[in-house]
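A common beginner's mistake is to predict each chain separately and then try to dock the pieces by hand. The better habit, illustrated here, is to supply every component at once so that their relative placement is modeled jointly.
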Amino acid sequence: MKFTDRIHLTISKITSNQYNVWLMRVLVVIGLGWAYIWSLHGLKVNPELIKTSLPYMTDFLSRLLPPDFSILDVAIKALIETIQMSLWGTTIGAILSIPLALLSARNLSPTWLRWLASLIQNVVRSVPSIILGLFFVAATGLGAPAGTLALGIYTIGYLAKFYQEAIESVDQRSLEALQVSRASWWQIAQYGVMPQVLPLCLGYTLYMFEYNIRAASVLGVVGAGGIGFELVSYIRGFEYNKATTMMLVLLVVVTAIDSLSSQLRNKFKVD
Amino acid sequence: MEPLSDRNLPAIACQNIRTEYQSTLQRPILNGIDVQINHGEFVALLGMNGAGKSTLLRSLVGLVPIQQGEIQICGTSVEQRHIGEVRKNIGFLFQGGALVDQLSCLDNVLCGCLGELTTWQSLWGFPKSDRRVAMQLLQKMGLQEQIYQKARQLSGGQRQRVAIARTLIQSPHILLADEPTTGLDLSGINQVMESLAEMHSRGLTVVVVLHDLSLATQYAQRAIILDAGKVWYDGDCQNIERQFVRLQSLSQFQSANAA
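With all components supplied together, the output reads:
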C-alpha cells in the first residue's frame, strides 16, 4: 500500500468513527460558549454600573404608580386608532404578500425568480419598522396614514415568508391525483391547493394582526399615529402616571386579542 | 363504464420507452421497456427499490415524460395533446392515498369527477347526482360512518379505500396502483387487495406495484419484474420467488465484480 493510500484510509476511518460524532458535539458546545463570552465582552458590561443604576430603575418604576385614569378616554381613543391602523396595515400587507409568496415558493417558481423574490423579502424584512415609519411620515405627514402604510410594508416581510411556507407544505401527490383525474388548473387550485393553504394563511394573518397592534404602538414614537404617540409624549412630559394608564389599556387589549385570535387559529387547525 | 371502442387493442402498450438520463444512476430510470398488457389482466409489477416500477406507472399517465419510444393506452398514444383522453381511461392509486387532508371523504371522492365537470360546474360544489354516487361508493367501501369526516382523521386503510372510491367514480377501464398496501396493517392490506380483485372480476385491467411476493402470487395472474429500468422477467406468478433469488444473486455477483 502506498503512503498516500494509507493516509486516505486513516482519514476515512476517522470520519466514519462514531467517536467523531462526540468530538463534533464537544466542538459545537465549545464554539457556542466562545460566542457567548465574545458577545458579553463586546457589550462591555460593567457590574458596577448595574449596582449604581438600580436606584434609578426603582425611581422610574415607582413614579409610574398609581395610574392616572383621568385620561382613560384619550387612551381608548388612541387605542382604537391603533387597532384601525393594524387592521388596514395587515390587510394591505397580506394582499401584497400573496404574489411575492407565489413567486418565491419552491414548488411553483423557477430558481432565478425565487432568488429575486426572496431577495425582495429579505430587503423588506431587514428594514426596521421605525425606519419605515419615518419614511412614510416624511411622505404623508404626521399621523395614522403614515403608520398604516409602514405597517403594510412591514407585514410583507413576514407574511410573504409565512405564506410561502404554507404553499410549499402542500402535498404534491394530492395535486397529482387531481391532475390524473383531469381536473383543470382552477379546479386543482380550488379543491387541492386552497383547502391545504387557506387555514394556515388565515392563522398567520391573524397572528400578524395581533403582532401589528404591538408594532403600531412603537410607530407612534416617530409620530406615525397610534397609541405610542401619546405614550411617548406623556413620558417626555414626565407625566408617568398617565403613561401607565396607556400601557395598562394596551395590555388589556393585546391580551384580549391574543386569546381571541389563538382560539380562532385553533379552530382553523381542527377544521 | 363506457364501452371500449376496440377491445382488441391492448390496454397498455409500451414500445422501447426510455426516460431522461440520470447522472446519479448513470442510466435512464426506464431504460428500454417493452411491455404489452391486454384488457382484463391482473398484473403485479415487481422489482427492487430503484428498478423503475413507480416511474413506469407514472409515465403511463403522463406524470413522467418519456424521452424515447411510445406508450399507447387503449390505442391512444400518451402525448400532451391526448393526455385528457388517456387519463379518462385510467384510475391511479397513489401510495398512501394522496387525499386532500382538509377535505371530507365525500369531497375527496367527488374530486374524482372533476374531469367530467367544467370549472363553472364545480365552482359552487358538485351536482346532486354525483354526490349520490359518491356516497354509494363510500358505503360499498364500508365507510358510511366516515362520509363527512376529514380525510386526515382516517387510518391508512380507510384512506386507501377513499382513494379507491375516488378512482371508481371515474369508471376507468384500467387501474394503476403504486404500492397501495405500503404502510397498512394486515386487515387494511386484505381490504385493499380484495377491492382490487373485485374490480378485476368486473373486467378492469389492474396493474399494481407490490413488494410482497406472496400477495402477487395470491392475486395476480402475471408478474413483471423490472431490474435497472428493464423488464427482467415477464410471465406467470408461480415461480416468482425463484426468479427473485436469481435476480438477487445476479446483482450481488455484479456488485462484487464491479468492486
